[in-house]
Amino acid sequence: MSALALGVIVGLTPLVANGAPQATAEPAPPSPSAQAPAPASPLQAPATEPPADYVIGPDDVLAVLYWREKELSGEVTVRPDGKISLPLLNDVTAAGLTPSQLRDRLTESSRKFVEDPNVTVVVRQMNSRKVFITGEVEKPGFYPLTGPATVLQLIAIAGGLKEYANAENISILRMEDGKSLSFRFNYRDVAARRNLAQNIQLRSGDTVVVP
């Protein structure tokens, strides 16, 4: 029964045979499943488009689509060795390439089997992009990085700081061009809206250490 029809029925005062009105029924509260779901975190939300610096990595899920060549199309997972397997082409290295670079490689490799191949590479899941958090948080471990996310957001996703965490001396460790970099993060400052520049955006491979 629709909500409008229910409202009409509840709004009426039905009569019994002797003319005495019956008590009207209160509408039932909406069930939790009918309420709007909470928005997903930037770390866990499905990616609509890979970030500009994205390159394919192991465990990523790709859809390779050939125009008018369905038998060559398919969804593949990048293996630990960085390769994917496709009909006719067999093993193709995908790790380390951008989706457009992989598309170009597949297009060139397919010319011996297909005349004027038209290939599209769609990223279904970016499982290779991860950030790590360890130390005095409720849920340490790794989390997929499928969109922009800051240090404060990662701490929130990890359940927050434990009671005795050293909130003023959190570190972000990063490898960049073969060099180890370290950034300091003062949770109390950021929570008080001071020195907000230290709440940097995380990159794939970053590790947040909460002493």
Produce a short descriptive summary.
By secondary structure, the chain is α+β, with helices and mostly antiparallel strands. It is built from four helices and ten strands; from the N terminus they run H-E-E-E-E-H-E-E-E-H-E-E-H-E. The longest helix is centred in the middle third of the chain and has 12 residues, at 99-110.
Written description of the protein model:
The radius of gyration is 27 Å and the shape is elongated. By secondary structure, it is α+β, with helices and mostly antiparallel strands. Among the domains are: 61-125, 2-Layer Sandwich (wza like fold); 130-210, Roll (Outer membrane lipoprotein wza fold like), CATH 3.10.560.10. The chain contains four helices and ten strands; from the N terminus they run αββββαβββαββαβ.
Features:
alpha+beta; 211 residues; elongated; wza like fold; Outer membrane lipoprotein wza fold like; three-stranded antiparallel β-sheet
Number of strands: 10
Q: Mind telling me the CATH class of the domain at 130-210?
A: Alpha Beta
Q: Structural class, from helix and strand content?
A: alpha+beta
How many strands, what sense, and barrel or not for the largest sheet?
5 strands, mixed
The CATH architecture classification of the domain at 130-210 is Roll
The general outline is: elongated
Widest beta sheet: strand line-up: 7-6-10-8-9
Euclidean distance between termini CA atoms = 57 Å
Q: Uncertain regions: pLDDT < 50 for 5+ in a row?
A: 1-25, 29-47
Q: How many helices does DSSP assign?
A: 4
Order of helices and strands: HEEEEHEEEHEEHE
CATH superfamily of the domain at 130-210: Outer membrane lipoprotein wza domain like
Percentage of residues in DSSP E strands:
25-35%
Q: Helicity level, as a percent range?
A: 10-25%
